[in-house]
Amino acid sequence: MRKILGMILVAAMLFMPGCSEKKENSTPTSSDVVERLTTVDTFGIVKAKDVKDIYVDFPAIIEDIPIKNGQTVNKGDVLSVINYDEFKSQINSTEVEINSLRLEIENNQLEMKNTQLTLEKLKKDLKELQDYLKNNNHPDIKQLMSDLENAKKIYEDSLEDLQTCEELFKAGTASKEEVEMHERNVEKSKKSVKDIETSIEKTKYNLQKEIENLELSINQNNVKLDSYKNSKAICEEKIKSLEEKIELMNNKISKSYIKDNTIISDMEKAIVYDLNYVKGESINTTKKVLSMVDLDSMIIEADVPEEFIKDVKVGSKVKIIPQADKSKEYSGKVAYISNTAKEKNGETIVTVEIDIEENDGFLKPNFNVNIEISTE
């Protein structure tokens, strides 16, 4: 390449004096030639900056491939027809499961509400009974206490009557039958007092048992309430997990290149290659379906010898001539100059990227081109 560039520079010096500065009584040197350099000529390769590998990461089967390797396609063109009914069924089943869990939560909420209402009533009844027992003011107890008071008075009165009757009997004014009658009245009234006291104790015992039953019911309802809360938390956690699963599944089919049951081009103009499947084949999620290069992202990648890189600047104008048709000529600009050099074919070169202006589609990936980079 250096020999070719040297010959071009010498020819330019000999036949294009307008491009160089004359020196009286002197012979041009190689340094003079470099100083007069107006273009850097080299070779380049057409490449695409935007390359996309198409993957389908869910179960599917290729039903049709209406394109061929190397074919140019436009945005929206169908690249493959796929069948993923099984995957859709998985999504639907997951949605049904989520709805079922939500219904379970609703039922749990209703049960929780009913349980809370029951608990409130039980706690209210418990407090009421505890107050009754503590203060002896339960209606039944109050009535029995009143009856006891009356029974005790009757008992005391019967004792007094018996005592009076016995004194009269001693005095000879009362009969033995009358004394015995008063004795029976005393026994009767005494038994009445004892019966009422027993009824009071029994009523208190029943109240205590009722309190214990209420406390047991409250504990059982608290356990039930905790169970509903835990069940709700578990359902909510499951729903969250399933919703994340649904989101991931939907994201897999919500790609810009998937539409209904087809894989389409999402590039305005592209070339497809590496078609890796045939009709009827199941898609392997780790194996790409095909690849695409964006024709609107075409650039030229060129290698410039290190001794000429100082004359190349970002923004420098470039003339591009494809070897496939040397009658065509394109314009471009230097867009990027690598900050490192590398050795290639025994020569130290620096890689330069060139943007193509008004590409008419003729320049294809990996086309070889001749380029002239203006140094002016």
In a nutshell, what does this entry contain?
This protein has 376 residues and is α+β, with helices and mostly antiparallel strands. It has five helices and 14 strands.
Index terms:
six-stranded antiparallel beta barrel, 24% strand, disordered N terminus, four-stranded antiparallel beta sheet
Report the portion of residues in β strands: 15-25%
**What structural category characterises the helix and strand content?**
alpha+beta
From the N-terminal CA to the C-terminal CA, the straight-line distance is: 22 Å
Q: Tell me the number of strands.
A: 14
Mean of all residue-level pLDDT scores: 89
| Unreliable stretches covering 5 or more consecutive residues | 1-35
Q: What helical percentage do the residues reach? A: 40-55%
| Overall geometric form | rod-shaped
Strand order in the largest sheet: 1-10-13-12-11-14
Profile the largest sheet: 6 strands, antiparallel, barrel
Q: Please work out how many helical segments DSSP would assign.
A: 5
What is the ordering of alpha helices and beta strands?
Answer: HHEEEEEHHHEEEEEEEEE
Overall radius of gyration? 53 Å
Structure characterization notes:
- A hairpin with a 2-residue loop joins strand 6 and strand 7 (262-264).
- 48% of the residues lie in helices and 24% in strands.
- Residues 1-35 have low confidence and may be disordered.
- It is α+β, with helices and mostly antiparallel strands.
- Helix 3 (85-135) packs antiparallel against helix 5 (176-253) and helix 4 (139-171) packs antiparallel against helix 5.
